[in-house]
């Protein structure tokens, strides 16, 4: 049976890999992202696209209206939007600015990108989740367990865990499951931009037990399984996809 699958951040990286996995099942996929041109060039067969900034309430309302008109019911909601970059210039982004203002800006941006986007979209679409059988899936990070260097990104991802647990309790009586997937180092994404050196890459791979970097497909396969009937009794869990790196070496 064809399902309606909504994926934020669906134009690149893990979100795109997940979109392709669901489209291969002939599911109807809706890709969300800030850049319309990226969504349109994603190449997901039969996918709908809608460009929106999910940190903005009015944009999220627009998504909800589009979903109501085009899909009606949401069977699978995947939150892949986020990252460690800046949304827009702000206090502390230029040399010489107040260091404390820079901290405030970095933490505010991290939580807007990684936490607020997920919360706003979930709440906007919660009444449209299929009951029973709906799935809500969040993308966290190994950083939620090990830190991220600055703390802001890791904290914003870790904040998704208790939110997911609360949602699982709230939505469980409707037959809806809520889970989190926490990837480790994943190659072929835009996350690191041009900051990844070969030395750092080898260091991250050496931390795994499997001796390799993760791929977007590794994470997409986990999301696909959690959305399947086989995982209908799994909820309020964090599934780590990091080749054992969280345990350390």
Automatic annotation (TrEMBL):
Family matches, as InterPro entries: KR_dom, NAD(P)-bd_dom_sf, Sc_DH/Rdtase_CS, SDR_fam
Pfam family, one: adh_short_C2
Domain Ketoreductase: 3-189
Domain of life: Bacteria
PROSITE patterns: ADH_SHORT
Alphabetized Gene3D superfamilies for the sequence: NAD(P)-binding Rossmann-like Domain
UniProt keyword annotation of Secreted present: no
Molecular function as annotated in GO: 3-oxoacyl-[acyl-carrier-protein] reductase (NADPH) activity
Enzyme class: oxidoreductase
UniProt key word Hydrolase: no
Membership in a protein family: Belongs to the short-chain dehydrogenases/reductases (SDR) family.
Xref: PANTHER family: 3-OXOACYL-[ACYL-CARRIER-PROTEIN] REDUCTASE, CHLOROPLASTIC, SHORT-CHAIN DEHYDROGENASES/REDUCTASES FAMILY MEMBER
The name this protein goes by in its record: 3-oxoacyl-[acyl-carrier-protein] reductase FabG1
Phylogenetic classification of the source organism: Bacteria, Bacillati, Actinomycetota, Actinomycetes, Kitasatosporales
Gene: fabG1_2
């Amino acid at each position: 049976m064809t399902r309606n699958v909504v994926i934020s951040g669906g134009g690149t990286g893990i979100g795109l890999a997940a979109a392709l996995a669901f489209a291969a099942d002939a599911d109807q996929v809706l890709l969300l992202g800030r850049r319309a041109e990226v969504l349109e060039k994603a190449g997901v067969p039969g996918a709908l696209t809608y460009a929106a900034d999910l940190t903005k309430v009015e944009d999220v309302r627009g998504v909800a209206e589009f979903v109501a008109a085009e899909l009606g019911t949401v069977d699978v909601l995947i939150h892949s939007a986020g990252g460690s970059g800046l949304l827009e210039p702000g206090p502390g982004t230029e040399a010489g600015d107040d260091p404390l203002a820079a901290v405030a800006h970095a933490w505010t941006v991290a939580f807007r990108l990684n936490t607020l986007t997920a919360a706003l979209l979930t709440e906007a679409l919660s009444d449209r989740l299929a009951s029973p059988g709906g799935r809500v899936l969040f993308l966290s990070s190994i950083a939620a367990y090990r830190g991220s260097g600055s703390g802001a990104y890791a904290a914003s991802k870790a904040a998704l865990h208790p939110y997911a647990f609360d949602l699982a309790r709230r939505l469980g009586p409707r037959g809806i499951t809520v889970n989190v997937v926490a990837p480790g180092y994943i190659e072929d994404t835009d996350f690191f931009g041009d900051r990844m050196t070969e030395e750092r890459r080898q260091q991250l791979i050496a931390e795994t037990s499997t001796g390799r970097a993760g791929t977007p497909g590794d994470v997409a396969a986990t999301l696909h399984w959690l959305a399947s009937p086989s995982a209908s009794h799994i909820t309020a869990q964090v599934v780590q996809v990091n080749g054992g790196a969280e345990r350390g070496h």
